[in-house]
Amino acid sequence: MTTTEGGPDQPGRPRRFMEENIMLARVRAEAGRIATAAGTTVLTGGLAIDSLTGPGALAAVTTAGLGLATNIKILRAPASVRATAIAVYAAPHAGCAAILVGECLAPAGPTSVLVQAGIVALWTGATWFVRPGFLARQIADEAAAQEIAQAAEEEAEAADVVVPAQDAYASPQARWWAERIATEGGIAPHTVLLEHQQVSPHCVAAVIGSARRGVPVPEISTARLSALLDVPEDLIEIGPVPGRGTGVRLLVIGERPQPAETAEPKAKGDEAMWAEIAATAMPGVELLEANTYEIRKELT
User: Would you say 178 and 169 are in contact if contact means Cβ atoms under 8 Å apart?
Assistant: First the structure.
């Protein structure tokens, strides 16, 4: 027993819907066969009766219009194939009208009639076996299915998109080094900025390391680095890091601060200071010995 109505999900409806579609397809197929037979009859009559040209062509155009009006699937086909589907559906009707006009204009004679009869037979066979109406609906169905599948695929891809994690950099300077200096074909490929320090307002020191373990830091072109930073090349120095291997290098950019002048020995400093004092305040007095005492915090 077939269920036609069911519970909340109504399981009988899908089967009933399928049966209705099959029945509708059969009706359309029969209608197409009848229309093809009618067109063949009109075209055959047009071989001998010119007065059938006008009514026959009008009937063909009207049939095409009514057929398209009842084939919403074709009219609502995706824009990419809509014009093609409509042209395929209307092709036999347009062909029928064109053959009728040709029969009216063709010269009389047995040869001409045979040629026209052959054209009629060709039209009948092509329309009967190709079934343009069915083909047009197939084109519309396939295009719609492709659009649905593509939309579903795009939706699935959008749902499964995983945003790749951005590389974590210790500082903006490390990011800048990675993006501008350490790129493939860059000034120092496969390197990382390990540490950096502002030594003075006009000098920066950086420790550069190789990104690949066991591989030394590649040669860094001071000329290219000078051009990129717009710093004189003689103010860029690259050398080893004390106590480290060739996997790290020290990069100094800018004028290095000059070390403070070494103070004179204490005795000599004291003597010089005393000589300066004695020359003005105590002339003739000589410094024989000097002792240093720590001043209490309270007195400073």
Answer: yes
Phi, psi torsion values for 23, nearest 5 degrees: -65, -40
Q: Where are the beta strands (DSSP E) in 181-287?
A: 191-200, 203-210, 236-240, 248-254
Q: What's the order of all strands across the beta sheet hosting 248-254?
A: 191-200, 203-210, 248-254, 236-240
Mean pLDDT of 250-259: 79
Check whether 84 has a pLDDT greater than 50: yes
The b-or-e profile of 58-88 (16+ CB within 10 A means b, else e) is ebbeebbeebbeebeebeebbeebbeebbeb
DSSP SS3 for 254: strand
Residue 37 sits at the vertex; the CA angle it makes with 35 and 43, to the nearest 5 degrees, is: 100
With residues binned 3-state (H G I as helix, E B as strand, rest as coil), the percentages for the chain, rounded to 5, are 60, 10, 30
Q: What is the pLDDT of residues 179-232, one digit of tens each?
A: 888 888 888 888 888 888 887 777 888 888 888 888 899 888 889 888 888 888
Average pLDDT, the chain: 76
Residues 207 and 227 sit within 8 Å (Cβ to Cβ):
no
Residue 284: count of CB within 10 angstroms of its CB:
6
Of 30, 34, 71, 38, whose CA–CA distance to 55 is shortest? 38
Summarised one tens digit per residue, pLDDT across range 132-168 is: 888 888 888 888 888 888 887 777 666 554 444 445 6
Cβ neighbours of residue 203 closer than 8 Å, sequence gap 6 or more: 252, 253, 254, 255, 256, 257
